[in-house]
Structure prediction request, 290 residues.
Amino acid sequence: MIAYLNGEYLPPEQACISPLDRGFLFGDGVYEVIPSYGGKLFLLDAHLERLGRSLAAIRLPDPIPGGGWSVMLERLLRENPGGDRSVYLQVTRGVAPRDHAFPGHATATVFAMVSPIAPQGPTVAGAGVSAITAPDQRWGRCDIKSVALLANVLARQQAADHAAVEAILLRDGLLTEGAASNVFVVTNDVVYTTPLGPAILPGITRDFLLGVLRARGWDCREEPVPEGALRAADEIWLTSSTKEVLPVTRLDGQPFGDGQPGPVWREALDQYRQARDRAMRVPGNEVAHD
Ligand code: PDD
Prediction:
C-alpha cells in the first residue's frame, strides 16, 4: 500500500508523524472517507464540500485549496490499483508544543490512505445485520467529521461485544444515528431519517439515497424518530460510504420484524445502485490507470 503524507507518496511504515501532532495529542483534526468503484471516486465533490465545512467549523484553513484534493486522491488511487476501495483522508492542526489553544504557527498535517471496501455479500442480502441500541454519549457538534471519535469507538465496541455490526444511538428518547452510519426507518412504506443538525453527521450516502428515493416517488421524511417508533418500525437501514445501505434484521439480540431484510430495503438498494452506476458513468469522473 502507498499512503500520502504531506506531499509525499510512500509506504505507510515510512510515513512518520510527530508525537507532538495535535491530531495525536488532542484529536484536533477532521477526516473524510470517500468510496471508489472501478477506480472512480464516488460523490467526490460532496465529500470535499463536507471536508471544507468541517475544516471551517474547527477554524483550520484548507491546506490544499483549489483542485489539489482531487489531484492528490486520484494519484493515490493510481498508486494503489485494485478493486473497490475507500480513501481515508485526515487533516490535523499539525505539530506544536502542547497547549490546548491554537498554536501561533503550525502547518497542517495531511494524511491519506486507501482500504478495500468489503463487498456486500449474499449473506447480507439473505440475513441482514445485527445492531444494538446504545446511549449517544458524543459531544454537541456531531455534524463535524472530527477524528476525535472516542464515544463512537466505545459504542462500536459495545456492538462488537454483542456480535453486532453497529450501535444505533439514542439521545433524549430520539434516534440520532449509528456509531459510524446514518439510520433510516421504514413504517407503512414511509421512509424516515433524523433531520440534519448538530446531533448527526450529514452523511453523503444519506443525502444521495434520499435524492434517489424521492426521485422515484417515495415518501421520505426528515423528522425526529422516537425510540418507540424505531423499535416498532417495519425496517431499519444503516447507510455509509463503505456500507451503502444495510438492512438491520436483529436489534438488541432479538430478531427485528420478521428477521429478514425487508422489501423496501431491496428496492431502495437496487435504486441506489442503479443511480450510483449512472453517476459513475458521467464523463470526467474516472481515474486513468497507467
Ligand atoms: N463514517 N454518521 C457517522 C457518525 C459516520 O461516522 C458516518 C461515516 C456516517 C455516514 O456518512 P457517509 O455516508 O458520508 O459515509 C454517519 C465513515 C464511513 C467512517 O468513519 O469510517
